[in-house]
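User: Hi! I have a protein structure encoded as tokens and I'd like to know what sequence might fold into it. I'm fairly new to this, so please keep things simple.
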């Protein structure tokens, strides 16, 4: 297995979060405007998506170049961003980009559920270096994370279908990452309970 190279934490955070924050800034500046490009009017949301896609591709490639490795979730996210973001731009319809978030979480939940059914904990394979735990701890965490992803998929559908575009952008930019951070903080006792002894 190829060992990922270490990079500075601030650089890693910039590459991972920078595209999303750039999308947020552009959308907030252009959300009440339309711009004519090639004879077609585009909303601020679509313009922000136009910028987000190539920046996301560039930042992911840079992360891969610097670390020598990408997580499966990063690859899946990039593919869905390009496909559904591209559809939103091509068809001038923001719904595809919003649905992309739902699909990402459903795919992750499905993969975690499948790994449990096959008795092969893929989450453990991906994260065991960062969180050394016993197998039972990984099984519990996988169940909880799969349920979280299902909940986030449902929440995304409710937000984009019933609330304003600005609310959805705020939810995607700040709400979803905050929920993920809170999830791992709330599971701190699980990590402690099932942590491997230091000599392992």
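Assistant: Happy to help. Inverse folding works backwards from shape to sequence: for each of the 200 positions I chose a residue that suits the local structure. Here it is:
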């Amino acid at each position: 297995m190829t060992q990922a190279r270490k990079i500075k934490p601030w650089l890693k955070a910039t590459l991972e979060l920078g595209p999303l924050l750039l999308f947020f800034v552009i959308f907030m500046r252009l959300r009440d405007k339309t711009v004519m490009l090639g004879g077609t009017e585009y909303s601020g949301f679509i313009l922000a998506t136009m910028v987000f896609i190539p920046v996301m591709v560039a930042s992911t490639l840079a992360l891969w170049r610097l670390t020598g490795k990408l997580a499966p979730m990063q690859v899946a996210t990039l593919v869905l961003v390009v496909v559904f973001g591209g559809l939103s731009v091509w068809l001038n319809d923001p719904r595809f980009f919003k649905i992309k978030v739902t699909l990402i979480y459903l795919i992750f939940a499905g993969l975690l559920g499948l790994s449990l059914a096959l008795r092969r904990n893929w989450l453990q394979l991906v994260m065991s270096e960062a969180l050394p735990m016993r197998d039972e701890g990984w099984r519990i965490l996988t169940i909880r994370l799969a349920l979280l992803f299902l909940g986030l998929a449902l929440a995304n559908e409710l937000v984009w279908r019933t609330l304003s575009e600005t609310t959805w952008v705020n939810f995607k930019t700040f709400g979803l990452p905050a929920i993920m951070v809170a999830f791992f903080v709330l599971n701190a006792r699980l990590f402690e309970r099932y942590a491997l002894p230091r000599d392992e």
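A useful reference point when you look it over: The chain has two domains: 1-92, 94-200. Feel free to ask if any position seems puzzling.
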